[in-house]
Every structure is written in structure tokens, then in C-alpha cells.
TrEMBL record:
Key words, A-Z: DNA recombination, DNA-binding
SUPFAM superfamilies according to UniProt: DNA breaking-rejoining enzymes
Record protein name field: Phage integrase SAM-like domain-containing protein
Domain Phage integrase SAM-like, first and last residues per copy: 103-193
One Gene Ontology MF term: DNA binding
């Protein structure tokens, strides 16, 4: 058994200090132990550099740790390295045991640390599926075969991309656990996470005009109109539109909930007409006035977008002509959701010759060669692009039902 002192300069603390680690190497492998000591200057050997404040006290503490770790290793040579590390952490550094904590536990813990609620919920769903598949899985029991079996288990019930999201979430939690020195295992080294190309659901300009002009029952108007508002605002995400409290100097300004990217969009007359029609009290739009969570309305909105089209009255179970069957404008296989507004805006913009950089700005995406300075001071490109897309769709009249 060999014991080394290692200064991990890749994990410098916020105050610029370097963690001092111990490397334990034996015939079963090697593992790292965090001593809790830090240094301003990287060193080798068993003594802190002369430049280090409290050098004598730190060197003395390090010496005690080394002696105790060596003693535990010699007296417990029958233990595997995971249990040996746990014993050292518990007896030398008074760190709590992680025994009994499952992989699902750590995924939930990671989810609860998220600021973004949507991202947190994605991780919580992963934790639930991990529990359903193997409620006793731990960092130590998960290997490549486990990952392959997880993928095979859910292949029949979940889409490939959903499984891939789970596996990427598990990988992220493993990486976090390695950083936190909870485990040294990493089963993803030779494991490839598959994914499918997402089918882009977009409408062309003619179809957008059809949807805009489609005659519907009065109660469905709000869902059609808000979709068009979403489109006129470059397809902003539902959370950003519904949670908006108001315009800023006549513009739609804010930060994307998903990425934190800045949004600064023109509100053209077509959009303002819809905002005025459904103007809210506490929020920009009235559907949020009696809600604290946008998701409830988003679900209703998406469900009812699928009803926009031809309405047919048929007899109900008692023979009265009062049941309505909805025939979606673009067929039952087309999944009409708020996301279609975003995809459609980008596709139509590209079809009329608007360059990719400008489209990226409209969508509040980052672009490799577009600097923050450029984004802040050349909003005229976005304004012109939005007007051009709206005018192109607006030129297509009488295409609705």
C-alpha cells in the first residue's frame, strides 16, 4: 500500500485555495480522500510550503491524517476500496457514511438543488424511472451492463430521446458525485448514449395564414389568437409569454426561463391587437390572472390547439345532435402545440432569405460569432426580420376555412 499527498489544482476554491488530497494506492486500485486542508501554493511531499500561512499547524495536521490513514489501511486490508474509503472518511475526517443512499436519492437531491423548476422536474422524472427499474441501485452497483439493461427495459415504452435524457441525467449525477468524492466509479467511459433527430413540426406561411383565419367557436378563439401572438413574438416559449408581467417601452423584454438569454423583441400591431384583446391585470395576458402556475394553462392551450379546424356535430349516446367531433386543420397526426409557432417562425424566416444569425437573434439563441455588444446594439436586424415575416404571412389572405 502506498500513500501520497496530492494538491488538486483543477478544483481551486472560490478564494483561490487548492484542496489537499490523499491518494491511496493498493493492489485493488486507487482512490482519493479529501483532507479538508487547503494551500495557496501547490506542493509535493508531506510538508506545506514555507509561504503558507499556519504552515506548522497544517503540516502537523497532515502528518496525523497520514499516520491514521496508513493505520486503517494496514488493519483493514480485507476491505474493498469503496468500504475502505468510507471507513477512512468516517473515522479520520468525521464524514457521514453514504451507505444506504441510492442512485435515485442522489438524482432527487441534484434535482432539488436546481433553480430552474422545469429542469428539476426532468431530473425528478428520471429518479422515478430509476426507482421503478432498480430501487436499490447505487453508484457502486451501476456499471455498463446496468446502463444497457436500463435502456433495454424502457425501449418498448419510452422514446429513444426520453431514455437518452435519463441516461444523460444519470451521467451528470455521476460526474457530480465524482467531484464531491462520493464515488470514483464512472460507467459511461465506453457507453454510448443514442439519440434520435427530433422531427421539426413547423407550418409554412400559407398554413399559418390558414390557421390565423380559421373560423372556430368563440371559446376556442383565445387559443388560436394566442398561438398567433406567440408566432408574432418569434415563437417565445409558453413560460416566457405567460409569465410576462408587461411590456417595456412597447417591447417584449426579459430573459428566457430555459437559458437565461436576453429577449428584446418588437411588438408589432398584429401582436398588440391580440395583447389588447386579452390584456391581463397582474400579467400581460388575462389567462394568468387567476393562476400561479403557467403550466395548467399551457396544457389546456396545447390540448385545444389540436381542436382548431372543422367542427362536426353528431348524435350523442341518447340520440341528440349535440356532440362535437373536431377535425384538426392539419390532420390528427400533426401534433399542434405552442412549439410549432417557434419552429414555424424560424422556417418561414429562412424561406424568405433572412440569414441564420438574425434568426438566431430573433429566437434569443446564442451564436458563436455574435457578441453581446452586437446583440445589444443591433436590434434593428431583429425588428426588420419580424416585420418581414409578419408581412409575408399577412400577404396571404382568405386562406382560412
Amino acid at each position: 500500500m502506498k500513500l501520497y499527498v496530492y494538491c488538486d489544482s483543477t478544483k481551486t476554491n472560490k478564494d483561490g485555495c487548492i484542496p489537499v488530497m490523499l491518494i491511496v494506492k493498493n493492489n485493488k486500485g486507487r482512490f482519493l480522500i479529501n483532507t479538508g486542508l487547503t494551500t495557496k501554493e501547490k506542493f509535493t511531499g508531506r510538508e506545506f510550503p514555507k509561504s503558507e500561512k499556519n504552515r506548522t499547524a497544517k503540516t502537523s495536521a497532515l502528518g496525523r491524517y497520514l499516520l491514521k490513514v496508513e493505520e486503517i489501511c494496514l488493519l483493514n486490508s480485507e476491505l474493498d476500496n469503496n468500504k475502505l474509503k468510507e471507513k477512512i472518511n468516517s473515522e479520520v475526517f468525521s464524514k457521514g457514511s453514504v451507505k444506504g443512499k441510492t442512485l435515485a436519492h442522489y438524482i432527487r437531491q441534484y434535482a432539488n438543488s436546481m433553480i430552474n423548476r422545469g429542469t428539476s422536474e426532468v431530473y425528478l422524472r428520471t429518479a422515478h424511472r430509476v426507482m421503478s427499474f432498480d430501487d436499490s441501485a447505487t453508484f457502486e452497483s451501476v456499471d455498463r451492463n446496468w446502463l444497457e439493461n436500463y435502456k433495454s427495459h424502457y425501449n418498448k415504452t419510452l422514446k429513444t430521446n426520453t431514455i437518452s435524457i435519463d441516461l444523460r441525467n444519470i451521467r451528470t449525477v455521476f460526474n457530480r458525485a465524482i467531484d464531491d468524492e462520493i464515488t470514483i466509479k464512472y460507467p459511461f467511459r465506453k457507453f454510448k448514449i443514442a439519440s434520435e433527430r427530433v422531427i421539426i413540426r413547423n407550418l409554412d406561411a400559407k398554413q399559418i395564414a390558414q390557421f390565423r383565419d380559421c373560423k372556430v367557436s368563440s371559446w376556442l378563439e383565445i387559443y388560436r389568437d394566442l398561438f398567433m401572438l406567440d408566432f408574432y413574438l418569434c415563437g417565445v416559449n409558453a413560460v416566457d409569454l405567460l409569465m410576462c408581467k408587461g411590456l417595456t417601452n412597447g417591447r417584449f423584454v426579459g430573459k428566457r426561463a430555459k437559458t437565461g438569454a436576453t429577449m428584446d423583441l418588437p411588438v408589432e400591431k398584429e401582436a398588440m391587437d391580440i395583447i389588447n384583446k386579452y390584456k391581463g391585470e397582474s400579467y400581460l395576458l388575462s389567462p394568468m390572472d387567476n393562476r400561479s402556475d403557467y403550466r395548467s394553462f399551457e396544457r389546456i392551450w396545447n390540448d385545444n390547439l389540436k381542436k382548431i379546424g372543422k367542427e362536426e356535430k353528431v348524435k350523442d349516446k341518447v340520440g341528440k345532435l349535440r356532440k362535437i367531433i373536431y377535425h384538426p386543420l392539419f390532420g390528427k397526426d400533426f401534433q399542434m402545440t405552442t412549439y410549432v409557432a417557434r419552429y414555424s417562425f424560424a422556417s418561414i424566416a429562412a424561406s424568405i432569405g433572412i440569414d441564420r444569425e438574425t434568426i438566431a437573434l430573433c429566437l434569443s439563441h446564442s451564436w458563436a460569432d455574435v457578441t453581446d455588444h452586437y446583440i445589444n446594439y443591433d436590434r434593428s436586424r431583429v425588428d426588420k426580420a419580424v416585420r418581414a415575416v409578419i408581412d409575408h404571412v399577412g400577404s396571404l389572405k382568405n386562406e382560412g376555412q
